[in-house]
Write a structure and sequence with these properties.
single chain, alpha+beta, MutS, DNA mismatch repair protein, Chain A, domain 3, Rossmann fold, six-stranded mixed β-sheet, six-stranded antiparallel β-sheet
């Protein structure tokens, strides 16, 4: 997709990129931003906007990426392109920092739990540089020094240097002591001249000490002498120092060669860090300007709701003022918008806002608006400003016509067309005729077009042509400053005579000009005034309707919540009544059991009555439970509140006040835009819930009631297997399972059951037999024949 430099410049896209680049933290991010351009793939754009959105959520949680401490790795990488050059330790450390930052960034990007996250995919694109990182850390200290561990030979040479240096210092100490007693020294210390250890000796006494003079002080009173006794030591010391430097250079050359072989990976890491920094800058921009991700390829060309020009807003904020947002829509059925109104009223500002936001949306930059829909335009044509050229001998009208010709010749659907003062620069009647012919041509193509005009003929054309809509701007009647309000459906007046009068043109001149206006023109002005009044009245009525509808929705939600609270109150009362009945029944049951024990002393009879009483209690519960379960509140899906940080575009959510399932379209500071059926609505985050993980995914059929508790109880009483297997379990676990099994079998009135415990050492079998003897409703137990399990199995007969 090719966007002309003129259109980008006319819409100030370069200035927008400069503003965005100021939010990047290192040079790689700034380079990526300055290279941004509109893309042709809707899927790629959606992926980029989702990336920005996820990074924005991280920034709002206090997480994010900042590469301000990253050194100038670019120049160090450029050195690697020169064969034979060995990098300095500082350059190697800069590249090491690049590698470690890239590795840390990749880990952070892939740390998320969502396997479909584009951040995880981006993190997976980073090259693996761990071996190079470890090598540099092993061979080079953070200070830039090559440590002893870098090479065994280096460690040996440095140890010899330390030992030799100590010997040299001791020898020189003895020489200094003798020379000092003889009064030969200018001062008692050891210094270095020509990379050799020397001592300062008085010039008149230098003959007393045999040696080599390596220099003289500026006064000539001191000579720096290397005693002959120390020459061999110094020669050896210099040799070791030279060998140390050779080894260090070899290590640096080794590191340089490793990095040179990884040159492509290093370049890739640099570029990807630039991409992450660029995305983070766009996320910061979104937070600062309350920007959103646009909806792409919805079937409508361009829809702006409360859109703001970011450059204008940035300028006004610094002055303590606020920008006035605009709203407009271009669709296949209403593809042409003509904006009219006085000079400096804001027509061009509206045109530029629409064009710049379209470029931002197609470049993966969040747009400052409440909502935006945008087609993936093949091009954006922007004819704005006076383009006359003295050098090319082009008048204003000639350059304007050439721009229109360029649009006609190169239009490929769908391209966004923006024309400021269409048909200007010549006789108004002829200019209007040219403009209407151009508009008609693009109308037949259903091309999205926004044009501004002062011409009365074009205003009338807009009112009488299908598919063309109007909008108007106005100025403040007292200050003559633009209000920047864009009134859809209205017609704007140029207000030339009014402005002339307010600016002090003599009244007789203004009156004469007014008389010269044709009667038809005056009538048209009156008609436009009346039309605009009707439009404003309609807008006010629509605002009232919207407000009333919103109030009705809130009232309905309030009533539903009250009704739900009443239902919950009824359920609480039913449960309290049920608990009271149960407690009373338990008390009567206990008294009955005590009476039976006293009178008969037969524990078995008491146990039988207890089991029958429990079955009777279960029957009572089954009768009461459906009443509770049938309450509407009990049929609500298992929901949990959904924090704002977990929201994501495309997520299925449950809108609790509306009792419906919806899909998230956009997340903003002023609410969440969701799609419920064929309706779109912006709701507060507090309204959104999601199913508990154990409840499964949300589906539209959430109104199906759950299975009553009675059915669940009945399911527990369905016939179960009459054989229990406890082989391999501990005695404690086996006995607990045995108790549950015996209780269930007794409830189901099973007369004969079996327990498979195995033979082993007989410990588990003995424990099970003890428990069977302690169980009052066990009549008898025994081992079956060998062919049926023998001592590894116990047959139990129950007294039911």
């Amino acid at each position: 997709m090719r966007f002309t430099d003129d259109s980008l410049a006319n819409l100030e896209f370069g200035r927008l990129l400069e503003l965005l680049a100021g939010l990047a933290t290192f040079d790689g991010g700034r380079r990526d931003i300055t290279a941004l351009a509109p893309l042709a793939s809707a899927e790629e754009l959606k992926r980029i906007h989702r990336l920005v959105g996820e990074i924005r959520q991280g920034l709002e949680r206090g997480e994010g990426f900042n590469f301000s401490g990253l050194g100038d790795a670019r120049s160090a990488l450029n050195f690697l392109d020169v064969e034979g050059i060995v990098l300095e330790p500082g350059d190697i450390l800069v590249i090491h920092q690049l590698m470690t930052v890239a590795a840390d960034t990749a880990r952070a990007l892939t740390a998320g739990e969502d396997p479909e996250s584009p951040l995880r995919e981006l993190g997976g694109c980073f090259p693996k540089l761990s071996s190079a990182i470890r090598l540099v850390e092993d061979k080079l200290d953070p200070s830039g020094e090559v440590p002893d561990r870098a090479s065994p030979e280096l460690a040996t040479v440095r140890r010899q240097l330390r030992d030799l240096n100590e010997s040299i210092q001791q020898a020189y100490a003895r020489i200094l002591d003798r020379a000092a007693r003889q009064g030969l020294l200018q001062d008692s210390y050891v210094t270095v001249r020509n990379n050799r250890y020397v001592i300062p000796v008085k010039s008149q006494g230098q003959g007393a000490i045999e040696g080599i003079v390596h220099g003289t002080s500026s006064s000539g009173l001191t000579v720096f002498l290397e005693p002959f006794d120390m020459v061999a030591h110094n020669n050896r010391f210099i040799g070791l120092r030279d060998r140390e430097q050779e080894i260090v250079q070899q290590i640096l050359a080794q590191l340089t060669e490793v990095l040179r072989t990884s040159r492509d990976d290093l370049e890739r890491a640099w570029e990807l860090l630039g991409v992450v920094d660029s995305l983070t800058a766009r996320a910061r921009f979104a937070i600062r300007f309350r920007a959103i991700a646009p909806l792409l390829d919805t079937g409508r060309y361009l829809v702006l709701e409360e859109a703001r020009h970011p450059l204008l807003e940035d300028s006004l904020v610094q002055q303590g003022r606020t920008v006035v947002p605009i709203s407009l829509a271009l669709t296949p059925t209403e593809s042409c918008l003509i904006i009219s109104g006085p000079n400096t009223g804001g027509k061009t500002a509206a045109l530029k806002t629409a064009g710049l936001l379209a470029l931002m949306a197609l470049s993966g930059i969040p747009v400052p608006a409440k909502q935006m829909e945008c087609a993936v335009f093949t091009r954006v044509f922007a004819v704005i400003g006076d383009q006359q050229s003295l050098t090319d001998d082009l008048s204003t009208f000639a350059s304007h016509v050439l721009s229109l010709k360029h649009m006609l010749d190169h239009y490929r659907h769908p391209a966004l067309l923006l024309v400021d003062e269409i048909g200007t620069g010549t006789d108004p009647e002829e200019g209007a005729a040219v403009a209407m012919a151009v508009l008609d041509h693009f109308q037949r193509l259903q091309a999205p077009l926004i044009a501004t005009t002062h011409t009365q003929a074009l205003k009338e054309y807009a009112l009488t042509t299908t598919g063309v809509v109007t909008a108007a701007v106005e100025i403040h009647p007292d200050t003559l400053e633009p209000t920047y309000h864009l009134h859809l459906g209205a017609l704007g007046s140029s207000r030339g005579l009014f402005i002339a009068r307010k600016l002090g043109l003599p009244e007789p001149v203004v009156a004469d000009a007014n008389r010269r206006l044709s009667g038809g023109r005056q009538l048209s002005e009156e008609v436009m005034t009346r039309l605009n009044e009707l439009v404003r009245k309609r807008e006010a009525e629509l605002a009232d309707i919207t407000r009333l509808k919103h109030e009705q929705i809130l009232r309905k939600i309030h009533l539903e919540r009250q009704a739900e609270e009443r239902k919950r109150s009824v359920i609480r009362e039913l449960r309290q009544e049920f608990d009271s009945v149960r407690r009373q029944f338990e008390a009567e049951k206990k008294a009955l059991f005590e009476e039976v024990h006293r009178q008969s002393g037969a524990a078995l009879a008491a146990d039988r009555m207890q089991r029958r009483a429990e079955r009777l209690l279960d029957a009572v519960e089954r009768r009461l439970e459906p009443v509770i379960q049938d309450a509407p509140a009990a049929r609500r899906p298992a929901l949990r509140p959904l924090p704002a940080g977990e929201l994501a575009v495309g997520m299925a959510v449950y809108v609790e006040p509306l009792h419906t399932v919806a899909t998230v379209l956009d997340c903003g500071r002023d609410g969440v835009l969701v799609q419920a059926g064929d309706k779109r609505i912006r709701v507060p985050v507090a309204w959104l819930c999601q199913r508990e993980e154990s409840a499964g995914p949300l589906t539209p059929a959430e109104s199906a009631p759950p299975r009553p508790a009675a059915a669940a109880e009945a399911a527990d009483d369905t016939p179960a297997a009459t054989e229990l297997h406890v082989i391999g379990r501990s005695a404690e676990d086996a006995l607990a399972e045995l108790d549950r099994f015996l209780d269930l079998m007794f409830r189901q009135e099973q007369r004969k059951i079996s327990v498979v415990h195995g033979m082993g050492r007989g410990i588990l079998r003995a424990a099970i037999h003890r428990r069977l003897r302690e169980t009052p409703f066990v009549r008898h137990f025994y081992h079956p024949p060998y062919a049926e399990g023998g001592e590894g199995k116990t047959i139990v007969e129950l007294d039911v």
